[in-house]
Write a structure and sequence with these properties.
The chain is mainly α. It contains 3 helices and no strands. The relative contact order is 0.22.
């Protein structure tokens, strides 16, 4: 679980992530550009990543 941030969010933070949020968290790129509509959990995804 230490290596998998999606499992960390699920079990430690009790978050049920959507598929695109999981994709954001699993991306290994240093910089991310997100083009998503409002109310899609962008802030939550990036907060978990930090």
């Amino acid at each position: 679980m230490k290596e998998d941030i999606v499992l960390f969010a699920k079990y430690e933070l009790d978050l049920e992530l959507r598929e695109f949020q999981k994709e954001i968290l699993l991306c290994t790129s240093r910089s991310k550009v997100l083009r998503l509509p409002r109310q899609q959990g962008k802030s939550v995804s990036l907060a978990v990543a930090i």
